[in-house]
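Protein Record: Sequence and Backbone Structure Tokens
======================================================

Structure line: whole-number tokens from a learned vocabulary of local backbone shapes, matched to residues.

Purpose: to set a sequence beside its fold so the mapping can be learned.

___
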Amino acid sequence: MSTFLDSWRSHLLVTLSGNSEGRPKWVGQIATGDDAGYFGPGSAAWVVHGGMATMVAGIRALLMQTLHPGAMAGVHDWSRYHEDPLGRLAGTIQWLITVTFADTVVAQRESSRVGHFHDRVAGTYLDARGKEQPYTAGDPELLSWVHLVFTDAFLQTHLLWGDAIPGGADGYVNEWATAGELIGVQNAPHSASELATQLEAFRSAGTLKSDARVAEAVRFIRYPPLSRGMLPFYRIMFAGAVASIPREYRDMLGLKRSRLPVVWATGLVLGVVSRLLGPSSTSEDAARARLARIVRTHNLAPEA
């Protein structure tokens, strides 16, 4: 049993971080810098992004992202998700975690890296009315949609499976608007009600659609090329992610909520993962090391 758990933990760490130690190379930059970053200890962003529910949030966010035909075109035309799905996931995690826990200079540099990648992404797509539209990854509408579905995914999954959020849902949405602005999002929501209103505006305007590309992406997210040992746990979390999505979006995705107690089962899986990974995250540890160094340096500095 111990050998199985050790193997499963290793597979999990490789999936989430790219190596079996659970500490990707870029975590080292979180320990550098001279300020507390955009959020800091006790913030809503630290609590939400440091929680286990992020594993389900990522699944939900990717599913929801597919419903905007422009965003789906960008993924279809430019993403390497078929060839290297874990690599694409790792890139998204790198930005999210760095902006959350790093100092402001490193967070800005990481956001610029994402922006430079977006500069290359361009093409055309058929909108929900069948009209061909040009797109770039930096289009305000596409940036807004991706920011909204990611913010909503991390918020809603944490409300289901996480601890209390400092400042509540409004606190998290307001804080994470800063991250959106770093990559060019305009008019990012600053409250949970603004988030819900902006999401509904996309749906009610007829912007979203479901087609063969969406079905293909949903199939891939549902059956990713993970190790056999991880698949049963992933399937439970996938079912949990689907259960957390409002019915109107589930219908567009061609997904149904399981009749089984998948919300409870997902919580159980997340608890097991938490015990396997341990109580602390390497990213938060690196951020706290930076803050401790800043305090020591400040205390040792001679008074003016």
Summary: The chain has a mean pLDDT of 85. The first strand starts at residue 122 and ends at 126.
